[in-house]
């Protein structure tokens, strides 16, 4: 058990910066570290982790799915807050507007992931499709749509 | 913007995202701890272990295996005369079965799960389910206080060593229970219970990931350098889940997780 954890820690140390960057592109800087921690705990506790051939890929995949859960949970939590105490009592941090946030806001979760993995990790659509558990065609379609949206935003 | 320019702009955009990324969180497991029953993989009961490929069947199997390990460990501990049972919680006098908050919600059915964890490893030593009105764990010098009776305002004292519960003087005004929507911490009256305690150099914190799963509570121990030495996941039973301050008693830290708290507009401030 101990040796396995040491190996896992080495894998984690080798890619944690990229994982945090990936999570930042998906949920923003405020929650990225929490999403990464949650994703790592979940995937390393899963049976699939032990025999996985590409554990780095599995970590990215877990961050992606955890971020989607985070989005759903955030929406539910905000709805509960409004229901419980009224909107005036809920203190929300104002979101700074910038070219970066505006550009990312224009993209869906999957498009953000595809853009990050294409332009930062230099992965091809086949590798991205395997990582995100989708088809190569879907990745190519999402990449084209994301580029089209960013062309408008970054103009 | 032509394609080449667009590619450059997107690379700059992603580089800025990475530049703005927060510091890397520490590795969430403790490699120095050996054996079943230690470390976050084995102590998170009832942890939500999800298996991406195997789904529910695997989750059920892991939960059952973890439960079996806990039962065997507890039986072995009892046989060896080294038991660390959960405290017995008696019903304090004067508590009405019909408890209501300021909004008229019935609180008598609200329950809290109180869990005792090993300060050094985070492993679960015992867990018990008690009525929430008797389970707002706070701290006072020399003892562990738990509780508030909504109607009488009585505090109740849990003395873990002898496993007894006694009542103390009434508190006025009658406190209300709620969940701080920003931190997820339990509210005692209008006071947020601080989410950390330090024992033998280990700082135990609760509720580090409220932004991800509101019904999940993470308890973690950090050494003096701020490194996470263990992490244990506790689950609430509903979306409206709050966690009390971790309270130390010897080398056991007690965490109270309360679920199903009904919404009440008076609960905050």
Index terms:
heterodimer; A: 155 residues; mainly alpha; 8 helices; B: 269 residues; alpha+beta; five-stranded antiparallel beta sheet; disordered C terminus
- Summed up, the helix count of chain B is 3
Query: In terms of quaternary structure, what is this?
Result: heterodimer
Radius of gyration of chain A: 17 Å
Strand count of chain B: 16
Helical content class of chain B: 10-25%
The biggest beta sheet of chain A reads: none
What percentage of the residues of chain B does DSSP assign to strands (E)? 25-35%
Low-confidence stretches of chain B: 31-58, 80-98, 133-177, 208-212, 265-269
The biggest beta sheet of chain B is recorded as:
5 strands, antiparallel
Strand content range of chain A: under 5%
User: What would you report as the Rg of chain B, rounded to the nearest angstrom?
Assistant: 21 Å
Poorly predicted residue ranges of chain A = 88-95
What does this structure look like?
The complex is a heterodimer of chains A (155) and B (269). Chain A is an all-alpha fold and 155 residues long. Chain A is 79% helix and 0% strand. Chain A has helices at residues 2-27, 29-45, 47-51, 55-85, 99-105, 109-119, 125-132, 136-153. The termini of chain A are far apart. In chain B, strands 1, 2, 14, 15 and 16 form a five-stranded antiparallel beta sheet that branches. The N and C termini of chain B lie far apart (52 Å). Residues 31-58, 80-98, 133-177, 208-212 and 265-269 of chain B have low confidence and may be disordered. Classes of the chains: A mainly alpha (155), B alpha+beta (269). At the A-B interface, helix 1, helix 2, helix 4, helix 5 and helix 6 of A face helix 1 of B.
Question: What order do the helices and strands come in, and which of them pair?
Answer:
The complex is a heterodimer of chains A (155) and B (269).
Chain A: H1 2-27, H2 29-45, H3 47-51, H4 55-85, H5 99-105, H6 109-119, H7 125-132, H8 136-153
Helix pairs in contact in A: 1-2, 1-4, 2-4, 6-8, 7-8
Chain B: H1 3-19, H2 40-43, H3 56-79, E1 111-118, E2 124-131, E3 137-140, E4 143-146, E5 154-159, E6 164-170, E7 177-179, E8 186-188, E9 191-192, E10 196-199, E11 202-206, E12 216-222, E13 228-235, E14 242-243, E15 247-249, E16 252-258
């Amino acid at each position: 058990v101990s040796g396995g954890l040491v190996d896992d820690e080495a894998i984690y140390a080798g890619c944690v910066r990229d994982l945090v960057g990936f999570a930042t592109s998906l949920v923003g800087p405020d929650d990225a570290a929490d999403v990464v921690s949650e994703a790592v705990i979940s995937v390393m506790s899963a049976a699939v982790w032990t025999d996985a051939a590409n554990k780095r890929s599995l970590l990215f995949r877990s961050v992606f799915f955890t971020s989607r859960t985070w989005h759903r949970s955030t929406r539910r939590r905000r709805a509960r807050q409004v229901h419980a105490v009224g909107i005036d009592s809920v203190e929300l941090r104002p979101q700074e507007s910038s070219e970066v946030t505006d550009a990312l806001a224009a993209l869906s979760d999957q498009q953000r992931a595809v853009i990050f993995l294409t332009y930062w990790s230099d992965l091809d659509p086949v590798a991205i499709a395997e990582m995100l558990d989708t088809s190569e065609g879907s990745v190519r379609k999402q990449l084209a749509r994301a580029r089209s949206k960013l062309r408008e935003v970054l103009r | 913007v032509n394609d080449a320019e667009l590619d450059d702009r997107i690379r700059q955009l992603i580089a800025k995202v990475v530049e703005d990324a927060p510091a890397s969180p520490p590795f969430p497991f403790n490699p120095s701890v050996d054996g079943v029953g230690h470390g976050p993989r084995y102590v998170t009961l009832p942890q939500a272990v999800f298996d991406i490929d195997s789904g529910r069947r695997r989750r059920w199997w892991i939960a059952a295996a973890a439960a079996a390990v806990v039962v065997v460990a507890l039986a072995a501990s009892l046989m060896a005369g080294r038991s660390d049972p959960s405290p017995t919680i008696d019903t304090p006098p004067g508590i009405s079965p019909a408890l209501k908050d300021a909004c008229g919600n019935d609180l008598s059915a609200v329950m809290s799960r109180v869990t005792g964890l090993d300060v050094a490893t985070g492993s679960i030593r015992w867990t018990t389910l008690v009525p929430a009105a008797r389970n707002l764990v706070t701290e006072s010098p020399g003892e562990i206080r738990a509780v508030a009776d909504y109607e009488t305002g009585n505090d109740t004292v849990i003395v873990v060593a002898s496993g007894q519960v006694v009542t103390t003087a009434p508190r006025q005004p009658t406190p209300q229970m709620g969940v701080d929507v920003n931190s997820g911490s339990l509210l005692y009256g209008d006071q947020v219970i601080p989410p950390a305690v330090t024992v033998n150099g280990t700082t135990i914190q609760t509720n580090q990931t409220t932004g991800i799963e509101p019904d999940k509570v993470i308890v973690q121990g950090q050494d003096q350098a701020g490194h996470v030495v263990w992490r244990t996941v506790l689950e609430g039973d509903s979306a409206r889940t709050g966690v009390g301050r971790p309270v130390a008693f010897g080398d056991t830290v007690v965490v109270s997780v309360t679920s199903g708290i009904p919404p009440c507009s008076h609960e905050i401030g």
